[in-house]
Specification:
Largest interface: A-B, 38 and 23 residues
Strand content of chain A: under 5%
Low-confidence stretches of chain B: none
Distance between the termini of chain B: 97 Å
Radius of gyration of chain A: 20 Å
Structural class of chain A: mainly alpha
CATH topology of the largest domain in chain A: Rna Polymerase Sigma Factor, Chain: A
Shape of chain A: elongated
Oligomer: heterodimer
Largest sheet of chain A: none
Number of helices of chain B: 4
Number of strands of chain B: 0
Order of helices and strands of chain B: HHHH
Strand content of chain B: under 5%
Mean pLDDT of chain B: 74
CATH class of the largest domain in chain A: Mainly Alpha
Order of helices and strands of chain A: HHHHHHHHH
Distance between the termini of chain A: 70 Å
Number of domains of chain A: 2
CATH architecture of the largest domain in chain A: Orthogonal Bundle
CATH superfamily of the largest domain in chain A: RNA polymerase sigma factor, region 2, helix turn helix motif
Number of strands of chain A: 0
Chain lengths: 194, 133
Amino acid sequence: MDEQELVRQIQEGDEMAFAKIVNIYKDKIVNYLYQFIGDYQRAVDLSQETFMRVYFKANKYKPIAPFSSWIYAIASNLAKTEMKRTQKAPTVSLDDLHNSYSSGAFSENPVETGLTRNIRQSLNLLHPRYRIPVILKDMEGFSLEEIAQILKRPIGTIKARISRGRKYLRRELENVLDEEDKDLEKKENSYGRT
Amino acid sequence: MEELNLLEKLERVKAPPDFEQNVLNLLSARKEKKRARVRNLGLSFAGAVAVLLVCFIVLNVFVFRGKGTLDFSGLEKETPTSSPRGETLRAGDYIPIIEAVDYSREIQRPSYESQTIYILEQVSEERLEKIKY
């Protein structure tokens, strides 16, 4: 059964069709949101919210675009809103922090070391305007046309943003590596003195 | 490009094993919440309509009943010389008066006789261009 048919069934309120869609897209959406936000637990929560939107807003889906573009568009919008919200109020209660660590909520976070961690750090420093198209293109493998549909922007704009995003990413990565080198030198010097 | 290779090095994550079940549970909870909201909205609307209806009935039966136009004008209670409290009317106070006026006498009836329309035209031997109306 193709996705369009599943969406049509969801529009009629079929939960089985919805479960199939969740099964098809859960890993993709969780991974996409994780790459975008950099926090596994928040990515999972936002993924759940994405699927809720899919179910309750299914009637708004027009089959002129692929379903994947639509679901990624929902996920992107939710992630952008979440990022704005957390930038405005970047506080976390101590209780929440304690509970999330004690419950092992971060156990799914991949252990990143060395270069991977630096890439992640550089990616997080990138503005969402560039980060989203770069992730969609270089990690999720979408074409320029599909990204243009997801972000509702002209292809030229997407192309420019990907190009600039890659450039900024390279620059940020170089900065991060430079800082690491300096830290390493400082440590070596301090060890040399002692 | 170099960045492409670098981004591919980032580890891909998967949804937790109970993700699907959690989504379906969340869906059931949201559906129930939506149903409750619709039900509450209907009850609130019905309650508001009932309150309005009761207010309308109470006002009509206990407040406005038996009060004619004269009551509202205060003509029965207030005399030209004194107020209900016994105070004399001062200059500038006004006394509401309702006067019945028969406008049928004021309007002239149209005549049923045949009417003649006179068209006044200047008759002249002169040329038409010089006729002025």
